[in-house]
Design a protein that fits this description.
The complex is a heterodimer of chains A (305) and B (330). Chain A is an all-alpha fold and 305 residues long. Helices cover 71% and strands 0% of the residues of chain A. In chain A, helix 4 runs antiparallel to helix 11, helix 9 runs antiparallel to helix 10 and helix 11 packs antiparallel against helix 14. Chain B is an all-alpha fold. In chain B, the strands form 2 sheets. Chain B has a two-stranded antiparallel ribbon with strand order 1-2. Chain B has a two-stranded antiparallel sheet with strand order 3-4. The N terminus of chain B is likely disordered. Classes of the chains: A mainly alpha (305), B mainly alpha (330).
Chain lengths: 305, 330
């Protein structure tokens, strides 16, 4: 506690010339309130972990630490359903989306940020307008179109329904307006001298894009990759709509299937065990690449004027 | 600060450089430009413009995918407005959630951002914890909250310990939507970070000047922070409203839990939100009526689009009265 007080006192001294007790108390209150809020934010996660390790009799009332750590809940939860298959599907869809999104967004953003061509500014304002477009307006017609689009037996289907294509192709091609905007803003900040010098040496635009601009855009590309990963991993509506046979499900659909199969009363300890595992990949990415999440959000906030 | 200053200078730079190089070089750059942008252009035409036009046409037809669309003029729209109690119910539910959740999210997120912006120790750790739930979303997180908000769940047990008898939340038609608001608070971190980034852009010199003039803490918030934060508040309100209008996954899961018929929209239709209703018309079922009513559902989609557009334009117009933009000539 003493060190904490020290840090509190020190942290406020540079801002004002003479430390006033009222400032100090204000900071202390802010700190304590944030401590309480953080605690509240962590409780659900702790509760989830705790529930997943409980025996059924511990599920009644509030017991924070299980009387016996029931690791076998995890085994039981994953003994139903095609979890391995669903995990594989989720990874394929997510990784394809991420790679496709990063490549296409970087091309498009490069064009909007660093090339001059007729119609550019008009097209860019259309990109921004599509951010306001509700997704459901295109939901039905896209389904109709994809149900007519031939797949030539890809993934055992005659049309795009019940394949991964509707989940992967639109984001790769159209990208997301938000990502294009974010990367364009970032690329505009890269000094022109570098690409001008390369141009004089006879480098093509593709080379400049690949060798100069992309390496310098890594932080923004990481942000886009991370948010695309999260979005694709957690997507529910489109897989629900397009993936119809059980072997094509993603983890999100599989998890819901798992709950629905339990009928009237889901076994909460098993359900929490399965849910926790489904959450893990995104949680892992967040803990490793935290700074890109936070920066990404901050850049967006700047962008929203 | 940097974010607002940058685009201006970049535009100026672009203009200054124009005129360099020959016509041929300019043409080549134009072709390259279009080529680089072509993934988006193709995707936009194929997956946005095309589908939207098709959807508009289908909304004037009766269409079940299998047979060819049959032109029926405005009848879908007439039926929706005058003969569809589900439509009005779903609109009522959706407006309830927008009206209650959006202001609460705004006030709570700004308050937490202000607390985080007081240069307290551990700011980074707090920021991480507050944002953490945003990566824990999806179906798994919805199950977690169903468990916490169960009639004998964690929250009600906590309430009981302070002498409050908690409601049955998602099992009680009157409490399903408040339940959504409560669980929504867990995902407020994204909003907090956006407000925080904006707060950090406010120059310290303004506060120092106000302090010299002897301004109180509240006066500083009211006359410096809020006006300079208002563009962000405006952006946040617009995007949160658009997002809330389209709530789907959460209510789909909750309304269909325990083997319930998702077409009925949960207890007493209290979770029949607009997009859920639209989805059921198109791909599920509504009461006795079978789904695959693509024409009807497309009309619903266009009505939602126009409602959202109208609300956004209204806000844009209202924003002139309360959003403060720095003009630069101070």
């Amino acid at each position: 506690m003493a060190t904490l007080m020290n840090r509190l006192t020190r942290s406020m001294t540079p801002s004002t010339s003479s430390p006033r007790p009222s400032v100090f108390i204000g900071k202390l209150v802010a700190f304590l309130v944030m401590l309480g809020i953080s605690f509240l934010f962590l409780v659900p996660l702790f509760w989830m972990i705790s529930t997943s390790l409980k025996d059924p009799q511990d599920l009644v009332g509030v017991r924070w630490i299980p009387t016996r750590i029931a690791w076998e809940n995890y085994q039981s939860a994953f003994s139903f359903g095609m979890w391995g298959r669903w995990a594989f599907n989720s990874f394929v869809i997510t990784l394809t989306s991420v790679i496709g999104m990063v490549i296409s967004t970087s091309l498009v953003a490069y064009s909007f940020a660093r090339l001059r061509w007729p119609g550019r500014d008009m097209l860019f304002s259309i990109v921004l307008t599509t951010m306001m477009l509700p997704e459901v307006v295109t939901l039905i017609p896209q389904f109709i179109i994809f149900s007519r689009m031939p797949a030539f037996g890809f993934q055992g289907s005659q049309n795009w329904v019940n394949t991964f294509l509707p989940l992967v192709v639109p984001p790769i091609l159209a990208g997301s307006a938000f990502n294009i905007f974010l990367l364009r803003q970032f690329m505009r900040g890269i000094p022109n001298e570098l690409s001008e010098a390369a141009k004089i040496d006879g480098a093509s635009e593709i080379r400049i894009w690949w060798d100069i601009v992309l390496p310098l855009s890594k932080p923004a590309l990481a942000t886009i990759a991370i948010f695309t990963f999260q979005g694709a991993w957690q997507d529910f509506m489109k897989p629900l709509l397009y993936l119809q046979s059980e072997s094509m499900y993603t983890l999100q659909i599989g998890l819901r299937q798992f709950e629905a199969a339990a009928g009237g009363a889901p076994a909460w300890n098993w359900l929490m065990a399965a849910s926790l595992v489904v959450m893990l990949p995104v949680l892992f990415i967040f803990l490793v690449f935290q700074q890109y999440f936070i920066e990404g959000i901050s850049i967006t906030g700047m962008g929203g004027r | 600060m940097e974010g607002t200053a940058q685009p201006k200078s970049a535009v100026g730079l672009g203009r200054a450089q124009r005129g360099k190089g020959g016509v041929q070089l300019k043409n080549r750059e134009a072709i390259t430009g279009w080529l680089f942008a072509s993934p988006w252009v193709i995707g936009f035409l194929l997956f946005t413009v095309g589908p939207m036009l098709f959807s508009l046409y289908v909304s004037f037809t009766e269409y079940n995918i299998i047979r060819t669309p049959e032109w029926i003029g405005l009848r879908n729209y007439e039926n929706i407005f005058f003969r569809d109690r589900f439509f009005w119910k779903s609109l009522e539910n959706t407006f309830w959630l927008v009206g209650v959740k959006v202001p609460i999210v705004m006030v709570v997120a700004i308050s937490i951002a202000l607390l985080l912006n007081t240069k307290i120790p551990g700011e980074r750790a707090f920021r991480t914890i507050i944002y953490l739930p945003n990566v824990l979303s999806g179906v798994a997180a919805i199950f977690l909250w169903q468990w916490i908000l169960a009639p004998d769940g964690l929250l009600n047990n906590a309430l009981r310990s302070v002498g409050i008898r908690g409601p049955a939340w998602f099992a009680d038609p009157n409490w399903t939507k408040p339940g959504l608001v409560v669980m929504g608070m867990w995902w407020i971190g994204g909003n907090v970070l956006i407000y925080l980034a904006s707060l950090k852009g406010i120059p310290a010199s303004l506060y120092e000047a106000a302090e010299i003039d002897g301004a109180s803490a509240w006066a500083k918030v009211r006359y410096i922070t809020l006006p300079l934060l208002s563009p962000t508040i405006f952006f946040e309100i617009v995007t949160t409203i658009i997002g809330t209008f389209q709530i789907f996954t959460t209510v789909y899961i909750i309304a269909s839990s325990r083997g319930a018929d998702v077409g009925l929209g949960g207890p007493g239709q209290s979770l029949l939100f607009y997009v859920l209703y639209l989805y059921n018309r198109a791909f599920g079922k509504v009461g006795e009526a079978r789904g695959l009513q693509m024409g009807y559902a497309s009309a619903l989609a266009w009505i939602l689009f126009i409602v959202i557009l109208a609300i956004t334009l209204l806000q844009l117009w209202l924003s002139k009265r309360w959003v403060y933009y720095e003009t630069g000539d101070e």
